[in-house]
Amino acid sequence: NLSQTTANQKNMFLGKYDVTLSNVDKIVQLTDKKQRAVNPQIKNSSKIETIKIVCKNFRYFTFGFKKAGIGKGKYIADALVKFAFPTKHNLLFLYNYKEKYYSSIRYVNMFDTKCDWVKEIKRCGAESGWRVLTRDRMEIDSSLPMHYVVPRHLSDAEYVNISKSFRNGRSAIWVWSMGNANLVRMAELKPEIASSTIENTLLEHVRKCDPSKKAPQLMELSKLLPRIQEVNLAYLKLRKLCTPETDSDFMAQDSRFQTLLEKTYWLLYVSVCLKQSVEAAKLLMMERTVVLQELNGRDMSCVISSLVQLLLDSSFRTINGFQTLIQKEWICLGHPFSDRFGHVCGGTSDEQSPLFLLFLDCVWQLLNQFPEKFEFSQTFLTSLWDSVFLQIFDTFQFNCETERQIAQLNDRIVLRPVWDWGEQFNDKDIALFTNPLYRKNAFDNLNVCNRTMSQNDSTEKKIASGLMNETTIPPSDIPTISFIEPLCSLKDIEIWQQCYFRWIPFLEIKNGGFPHIDLFNRAVQNNISLLQKLLLGGNISSSEEKLLPSKEFTLNSKNKPEALEEYGTDESKMQFINSFFPFTSNAMYTDFLDILFTNEDFLCDGSIIDSTSLS
Length: 615
Fold this sequence. Notes:
The chain has about 625 residues and is of the alpha+beta class. Among the domains are: about 115-245 and about 260-430, no CATH class; about 500-615, no CATH class. It is built from 25 helices and twelve strands. The strands form four sheets. It has a four-stranded antiparallel β-sheet with strand order 3-2-4-5, covered by helices on one side. A four-stranded mixed β-sheet has the order 8-9-11-10. The chain has a two-stranded antiparallel ribbon with strand order 1-12. Helix 9 (about 265-285) crosses helix 13 (about 355-370) and helix 13 packs antiparallel against helix 14 (about 380-385). It is globular, with a radius of gyration of 26 Å. The model is unreliable at about 445-475, about 550-570 and about 600-615 (pLDDT under 50).
């Protein structure tokens, strides 16, 4: 007598068919069979028959008004224009939502204090070359945080004087170290400065921070990667491809979908970002300091720097570690989220570019190629992408920390970080953020801080010849060697179906797809955990006991179907799960769904609940 339930992700702030105003990107009205854009500069017709809404996260809505009274469509269109395209930042919903917030976040470094940066420097063993610079006052026109890391041998005055020659005042800023090698970000020189003397002087200061005094490798990202405008154009093409207006439109493009996908260049840009990240990671492994330079030091450098650390530092592949990485590279160091995602109407279209989505897509490629290396799932990444447009949380709503501090001071906004997932989702949904295939490798815990590696040694040789002889394993918060080298060629890059296709009914596989495999993996992991508890003499609850396989199942593989049927993992109980679960409605047995969260040991193994990865 198993009961069925509707299984899909339930956001506590949004209903099934709700969408935030910040998510609305384009509105089109249909009047007298003619389409016309709805925007603040155009007066809407009183005879609107249909309104079409295209969302930034690839969702698509169509509302008909043929049977409504005259003027109803215009009323809705006028309201949407007024509230979906605010002309000032303080008109965002964030400024009006004043509910009290009590943080339950643990183990995520926010990098809003000097202590957080000091901890990161010590974690990476970089104290000898780098220190935290704290600005003595908040400057309204500065995109820099109050605290960031600079060369130790430079005084505050010397560093600030050099920085005046660089765009946004961003000269060398340290973000991570591996042995003697450092990962550094910096902007380009201001256009009025023709001489490269100052830049060469700065690179010499960076060289002095390396105990081995090797010259740093400068990676000019503006020459290696697409411009933000090109990324935005690729995104718009991809979104158009993934939001067909009608069934006939979908069928018309279906036969040439791969060609159309290739012409968007989105997958090409993912490929290029991964390739350059691998190049930078290999340089760091050869004990070469890498300096990432781009126009303003706030866009593509966020993408590459984050990916490099994911490739090399296994602690950032945990959930809390990944959130900490985003806080450091994107939030604290001032990626202009408001401009790039068009939170405020009025800026030029050249400023918009979903670089954060490009980064998440690159991370998904890594997860897809190395599923056992990441603690988080693709559902976590997709939910994170959706949260960019949920303005209850401040994390992705500002261009820099200075803007956030001013809003808190002047408008008394309530700072509510998105990392407190319990504010949005219940335990069942949060359980799907973890990856059942994640396993910590013994090699992941081998310390490589202050260890010199031969340039000619292969990764396998380095591990086998020296690193395996370590007699002590350092704490898990120390940077550890766990280099993963993804396949980066275009033929190896796949489309992120869950994120881009989930709103296209034609593409959903009924009673099939990856969620079947994922849920079965979770069930198996749950049972292994329960059996381990029994072997150690622990007690299990009656609800947990129902989920265990029978003795016949454990002793005789011939009885596998019957045993599976007993504890709710047979095909008949999974057949209601579709390929875009949990983002579309699915019907499944409650008892089987409970497998995802009834075992406390399994839940607590994920760093959302408890972790020491970066504490």
